[in-house]
Design goal:
The protein is α/β, with parallel strands linked by helices and 337 residues long. The protein has 2 domains: 75 residues, DNA polymerase, domain 1; 243 residues, P-loop containing nucleotide triphosphate hydrolases (Rossmann fold, 3-Layer(aba) Sandwich), CATH 3.40.50.300. Helices cover 43% and strands 20% of the residues. The chain contains 14 helices and 13 strands. The strands form 3 sheets. The chain has a 9-stranded mixed sheet, with helices on both faces. A two-stranded antiparallel ribbon has the order 1-2. A two-stranded antiparallel ribbon has the order 8-9.
Length: 337
């Protein structure tokens, strides 16, 4: 009997180990702790596995020993191995390029704005950052074969820039049904930095709970609230840490669900720059390192806009000239020399 009981106990332990596929399956934590973990953004085993004990303790108020234990269990139940180069190439084949409406701008991006990546556009007001975001929110709904991603857009508006009337104009310019296009854009107004972070985390609920096929997340703008709320050098570390966590959450969504992340960024003028353009993006190295593609937008001649690829993992530094009209982003009609 003892032998049978031991074997049964081993089988039960083995079954329990196999059942650990979500945060709710982790041993030693109750429903209240699970809710707290979820509220803090720890919604799956991977997020727990890569967390520090301090982060888990801060989110749930459990003991450090328990936090270390559940992190170890989460790591043991995940396949956290290396992938070969050819496997990475196969994953890259699933990437979708969303066309912007301008062939020159598409060339700059290497074919279009990429899924599973953060594309950051920064520049002064009127440089076309928001207009590009609105255009992408429309064009991402086109089928993949027509330059879209065949899915919906989520627009996190921090500055009150979203205008449904503008979406209607852009949809008509792309020969799309404006009513259908508007239905396929989920808009949320963020009123402060914490609200903005929470909205980004709630995108996963749209995908998992509502079954929506989200293919683009637009954050316009990424840094406005952080810049307004965290003033002075004393708050700089806290601000950068929050922006870092926010952007990591966005890129994780992009990787996990093959979503394009497009963020706009504000700029400041450096008074110590005597030669060249003094314009610099807000957010410092944290935003720069987290952005996969970094593009500087500025006004050009005769109503045009100039986009410069500042940083990219696989694209050389280059410039493109485009225009913004009633139909959205377009190629600029340059006079022949």
């Amino acid at each position: 009997m003892k032998k049978d009981e031991t074997e049964n106990g081993c089988e039960q332990a083995s079954e329990e180990k196999k059942k650990i596929i979500s945060v709710a399956d982790l041993p030693g934590i109750g429903p209240a702790s699970i809710d707290k973990l979820s509220a803090a953004g720890f919604n799956d085993l991977l997020s727990v596995a890569v967390a520090t004990p301090g982060e888990i303790v801060g989110a749930t108020e459990m003991s450090e020993a328990t936090a270390k234990k559940i992190i170890a269990i989460a790591r043991a139940n995940l396949e956290m191995d290396f992938a070969s180069g050819d496997e990475m190439m196969r994953r890259r084949e699933k990437i979708i390029k969303i066309k912007t409406g301008s062939e020159e701008l598409d060339k700059l991006f290497g074919g279009g704005v990429e899924t599973s990546a953060i594309t950051e556009c920064y520049g002064q007001f009127g440089s076309g950052k928001t207009q590009l975001g609105l255009t992408l929110a429309v064009r991402c709904q086109l089928p993949v074969g027509q330059g879209g991603a065949g899915g919906m857009a989520v627009f996190i508006d921090t500055e009150g820039t979203f205008r449904p009337e503008r979406i209607v104009q852009i949809a008509k310019g792309a020969n799309m049904d404006p009513d259908e296009v508007l239905k396929n854009i989920k808009v949320a107004r963020a009123f402060n930095a914490d609200h903005q972070i929470l909205l980004a985390e709630k995108v996963e609920d749209l995908i998992k709970k509502q079954g929506l096929n989200v293919k683009l997340i637009v954050v316009d703008s990424l840094t406005a609230h952080f810049r307004a709320e965290y003033i002075g050098r004393g708050t700089l570390a806290d601000r950068q840490q929050k922006i870092n966590k926010h952007m990591h959450r966005l890129i994780k969504l992009g990787d996990q669900y093959n979503i394009a992340i497009y963020v706009t960024n504000q700029v400041m003028a450096r008074p110590d720059t005597f030669f060249g353009d003094p314009t610099e993006a807000i957010g410092g190295h944290i935003v720069g390192h987290n952005s996969t593609y970094r593009v500087y937008l500025r006004r050009g001649k005769k109503g045009t806009r100039v986009a410069k690829m500042v940083d990219a993992p696989n694209i050389a530094e280059s410039e493109a000239i485009f225009a913004v009209d009633e139909g959205g982003v377009r190629d600029a009609k340059l006079p022949k020399e």
